[in-house]
């Protein structure tokens, strides 16, 4: 006998929003996954770019208008990038429906995107307390924990996400970030490789891996993943700027200049790329460089294919329970 499951109005609203929010989170929150390394002096700075800025509310006679508690209003604010407004709406929503895990989840995302990390952590923790079966809740809580400097807890939440979904490249990327933040470089590299073996178009893992190599001084290793990220998403000023950094440090100044120009073509307000471009423009260089960025990108694509062919078996519950630098390292 076939059972017919009836969804409440709130559940139907969330189903539509959740499908959309996965896309938005996959684009917007991945900017959180970039390792930022701002340096001064003659060494150019690597930056993750600006964060999303919510649209400020309109003040009327110094009095704040009543905040809606309507889920659809929160959905509209979130999808429009008005994250502070969305946070306020979902804050009101969960006061009327405190047992709705979806409301707390969206409150957590909205608070995080608006820069309120402490409230984001509280909301996502509450969502998980109500429903611990959503791997995205654990992944996003892990990201918030990293922003709060709570790296061991971030690793634990990413571990829980892997337990729920062993094929999650996002969880592995967050694990890599947590390892990297704690100085476990080899383990971070291994986790990024695992993420790319699962999703060979995960441009943020490519970018982060390249930045990690730059931080370690391995410029030649940094160029291929950054070149591949740019090949897949050339409109990203962050990727173009970071590729320019790697090319400049390896002596390919003309190509670096082109990358900085491409970054500014995508975002003319991107100040880091502007500073970098001014610096290399003042240099006298050999314009006959035959180095091929395209070949570097293609070589990395092939390398990721080899990782895919040797992807480890799915992580079982016993091994996930002991995620350490050694257990995640390939």
What order do the helices and strands come in, and which of them pair?
Blueprint: H1 9-28, H2 71-79, H3 83-96, H4 101-113, H5 117-130, H6 135-147, H7 151-164, H8 169-181, H9 185-198, H10 203-216, H11 219-232, H12 237-249, H13 253-266, H14 271-281, H15 293-309, H16 317-320, H17 325-328
Give the CATH architecture of the domain at 200-309: Alpha Horseshoe
Number of helices: 17
> What's the helical proportion of residues?
55-70%
Shape: globular
What is the N-to-C order of secondary-structure elements (H for helix, E for strand)? Answer: HHHHHHHHHHHHHHHHH
Strand content: under 5%
Radius of gyration: 21 Å
Mean pLDDT: 79
Q: What is the CA-CA span between the terminal residues?
A: 47 Å
Strand tally is 0
Low-confidence stretches: 1-64, 313-330
Q: Provide the CATH top-level class of the domain at 200-309.
A: Mainly Alpha
Oligomer: single chain
Fill in the CATH topology of the domain at 200-309. Answer: Serine Threonine Protein Phosphatase 5, Tetratricopeptide repeat
Structural class: mainly alpha
């Amino acid at each position: 006998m076939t059972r017919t499951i009836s969804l409440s109005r709130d559940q139907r609203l969330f189903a539509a929003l959740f499908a959309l929010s996965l896309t938005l989170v996959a684009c917007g929150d991945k900017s959180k996954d970039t390792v930022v390394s701002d340096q001064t002096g003659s060494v150019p700075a690597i930056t993750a770019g600006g964060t999303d800025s919510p649209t400020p509310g309109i003040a009327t006679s110094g009095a704040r208008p009543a905040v809606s508690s309507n889920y659809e209003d929160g959905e509209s604010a979130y999808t429009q990038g008005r994250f502070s407004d969305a946070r306020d709406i979902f804050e009101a929503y969960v006061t009327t429906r405190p047992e709705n895990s979806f409301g707390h989840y969206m409150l957590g995302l909205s608070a995080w995107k608006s820069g309120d990390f402490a409230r984001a952590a509280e909301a996502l923790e509450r969502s998980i307390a109500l429903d611990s079966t959503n791997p995205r809740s654990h992944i996003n809580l892990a990201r918030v924990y990293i922003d709060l400097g709570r790296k061991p807890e971030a690793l634990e939440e990413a571990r829980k996400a892997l337990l729920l979904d062993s094929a999650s490249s996002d969880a592995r990327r967050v694990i890599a970030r947590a390892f990297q933040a704690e100085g476990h470089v080899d383990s971070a590299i291994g986790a990024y490789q695992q993420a790319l073996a699962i999703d060979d178009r995960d441009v943020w893992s490519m970018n982060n891996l390249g930045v990690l190599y730059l931080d370690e001084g391995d410029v030649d290793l940094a160029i291929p993943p950054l070149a591949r990220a740019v090949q897949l998403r050339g409109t990203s000023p962050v990727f173009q700027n970071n590729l320019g950094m790697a090319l400049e440090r390896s002596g390919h100044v003309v190509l670096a200049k082109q990358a900085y120009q491409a970054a500014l073509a995508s975002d003319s307000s991107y100040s880091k790329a502007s500073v970098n471009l001014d610096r290399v423009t003042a240099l006298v260089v050999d314009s006959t460089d035959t180095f091929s960025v395209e070949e570097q990108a293609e070589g990395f694509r092939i390398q990721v294919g080899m990782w895919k062919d040797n992807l480890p078996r799915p992580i079982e519950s016993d091994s996930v329970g002991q995620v350490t630098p050694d257990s995640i390292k390939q």
